[in-house]
Amino acid sequence: MGAAVLSDLVAEVVIPFSAAVGIAFALVQWLLVSKVKLTPEHQAAAAAAESKNGSGDYLIEEEEGLNDHNVVVKCAEIQNAISEGATSFLFTEYQYVGIFMVAFAVLIFLFLGSVEGFSTKSQPCTYSKDKMCKPALANAIFSTLSFLLGAITSVVSGFLGMKIATYANARTTLEARRGVGKAFIAAFRSGAVMGFLLAANGLLVLYIAINLFKLYYGDDWEGLFEAITGYGLGGSSMALFGRVGGGIYTKAADVGADLVGRSRGTFPRMILENPAVIADNVGDNVGDIAGMGSDLFGSYAESSCAALVVASISSFGVNHDLTGMLYPLLISSMGIIVCLLTTLFATDFFEIKAVKEIEPALKRQLIISTALMTVGIAIVSWLALPSSFTIYNFGVQKTVKNWELFFCVAIGLWAGLVIGFVTEYYTSNAYSPVQDVADSCRTGAATNVIFGLALGYKSVIIPIFAIAVSIFVSFSFAAMYGIAVAALGMLSTIATGLAIDAYGPISDNAGGIAEMAGMSHRIRERTDALDAAGNTTAAIGKGFAIGSAALVSLALFGAFVSRAAISTVDVLTPKVFIGLIVGAMLPYWFSAMTMKSVGSAALKMVEEVRRQFNTIPGLMEGTTKPDYATCVKISTDASIKEMIPPGALVMLTPLIVGTFFGVETLSGVLAGSLVSGVQIAISASNTGGAWDNAKKYIEAGASEHARTLGPKGSDAHKAAVIGDTIGDPLKDTSGPSLNILIKLMAVESLVFAPFFATHGGLLFKIF
């Protein structure tokens, strides 16, 4: 079979080194962003320094004779209010999530420990009965520890992302006075801080956990990597609450602020007199930043765990080939280096000088990272893998060549790019689908809604084909391991993907701050251009997250079927079919819960804002400040209360089905939820994104066609705003949360598989 070129020692050095490089690069980017000061004295000094350097890059405020001191102070005040609101929400959320984390950790220990009656004796290995493995009690303890480790890493990833975003938003606004290029770099660098910190921390913590667990497990790699799957479960369970809670918060505030603005005639939503405006800006950070960070960390952790579990029972694990075993982590290490080079193209190699260059620059990031990563995957596959090896494939060992595994990872990577660009085509107002939706607003809101829904359904077609081709090719080459590394390929450029994704909410906040601080129209045009590009890239990010979730879920499903000793999943068996049909229903039930939660919370927000307008004298005139804190509290309380039922639905379903109906029915539930969940997630995200950009298309009036539909306040614009408001919870709450549903149920089933295989199916045993 041959040996890998890369020695075990070099592999063990390369992984932490790459993670350290990623963290160092994130800190450098953060230091560069921090040079933009939020004090008037520093701003004046910076302006003077610029003019001494001969660049002539004067501040617009100075050209227009505005008071620079007041603008900077106001920006700092607004940023502080947003940062305090976001921190307050996350701390409240984490208190509740912390209780859940401890309770679920106890549950994992009790369920897995009871498999062998809490015995401390060694037991025959699951896949190699002639060998002895560590006791089930050890699996229970280490699975619990890895769950807590994954949960804490996920929480820290989300929190750091939020702190970075709230630190950068006002700085992006102030940089917009020096040109659109400067503002773009400030926003993108801040996104890169989050992207690299998350990718590097996720890799480093997983690597350290494997090495610490190895001290106890020794040569029992089967038990070691089965225990490591708890890391993915911890990451995704926190992501679920972050996504659902943050999504409800952000859309309750957003929809509330929108509705209030319209109920007051032409009253703009993004001015300081609107009491919901701070809650709206806080929502961008807790939903789109903290939620997305935890979500993609969960995907990364789960795809790594799925690949490691399958590898541990293949020739890598059986022969104790550490370099081959760590192949998924080496791919992620290469991803960090590739993304670092890619980021320099946006921040150092090419300077943006005009508004129209923003979106191409962001898309260029995706293309460059994918192209470079393809070369990187080839290098890792050549160095880290033997020329041929065997992969476990439902009871038999399948011989695989190293070039076949390269194709598995590469096809996942390129499928991600295809999904990203198809998503952009259906959600960007530069293309005909969104322009058709905008055009439909001529005849009112009803036709806008019909066209938007049709666009969402149609946008599912190509991504599903891309996922299907990835699954077929990767499974043909390397069975379930191929699918797991294809998912990892899609997520290998996670640092760049997150940088692009976080850029959107930072730019959105920057535009809001510019408007609230009363900055000039020219600056708001620049921040609006940054925001418009951010909307499209956010949709691309959601496409990546959903596509990778489908592959991750299928890989975990394969690992679960193997671990639960199910020879075949036969849909003609009643046990499986009832699971299949119930599983297909779950995404609809989950979406109904999250949509209604946003509606209820938005209703409370509107009532509170109306109360303030009616009872606080001088609020409409701008002579009195509104009570922002109450609005922030309404969004916080509503999201905390409303995130529990959907979270419970996802977390309890595998436990109930596996315990009472057994592993066959649970396999049906997982397959059903995967198949229907992916379709709903893509259509919901794209429908909402299209409605949002159709509204912006009319407002911008950049083309002759758009001008015939506008301006703001026209009948067509009012119809577009209704579509946008309906689409908000679709694209930012229900759609993105569904990809966590399909992943989380699969990884939870895998973690609890030993219990379900031994004690599951109580109802069928009784009857």
Automatic annotation (TrEMBL):
GO terms for molecular function: diphosphate hydrolysis-driven proton transmembrane transporter activity; inorganic diphosphate phosphatase activity. The keyword Cell division does not apply. Pfam families: H_PPase (PF03030). It is a multi-pass membrane protein. GO terms for cellular component: endomembrane system; membrane. It is an enzyme of class 7 (translocase). This is H(+)-exporting diphosphatase. It comes from Ananas comosus var. bracteatus.
